[in-house]
Structure to design on (146 residues):
């Protein structure tokens, strides 16, 4: 029993010490958002038509991101373009989780950075502090630590 607990603690410490990347973070979020969909979630529609594409982006999220990146001009592109959707997520995170984003882009992100990004993606600008985003985070964590 004690050996099992120590093993679990050691595994958790290894996960905390590991570095994470922006690509790993995006891939984990995409799998949680549209994991069972073909074509990496391109064309996926959820939340009664309110969330679209591989990252299930809402119009308000796109509008917010477009305030920071003037090249994000067409919300409808989120439905059919993984690349465009990723640019939207990046612009949004550049506004609300810049330090975590930059560490992940540099390949030096922590699990806490992945958590911050994923919970903000799910719950909006203050999503990292909302209890409602914890279940979502657990799903992303499972994906990113595989």
């Amino acid at each position: 029993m004690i050996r099992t607990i120590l093993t679990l603690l050691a595994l958790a410490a290894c996960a905390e010490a590991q570095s994470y990347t922006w690509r790993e973070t995006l891939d984990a979020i995409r799998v949680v958002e549209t994991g069972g969909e073909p074509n990496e979630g391109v064309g996926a529609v959820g939340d009664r038509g309110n969330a679209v594409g591989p990252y299930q982006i809402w119009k308000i999220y796109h509008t917010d991101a477009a305030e920071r990146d003037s090249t994000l001009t067409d919300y409808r592109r989120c439905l059919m373009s993984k690349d465009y959707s990723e640019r939207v997520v990046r612009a949004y995170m550049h506004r609300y989780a810049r330090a975590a984003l930059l560490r992940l882009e540099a390949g030096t992100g922590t699990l806490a950075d992945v958590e911050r990004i994923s919970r903000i993606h799910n719950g909006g600008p203050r999503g990292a502090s909302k209890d409602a985003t914890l279940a979502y985070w657990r799903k992303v964590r499972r994906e990113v630590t595989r």
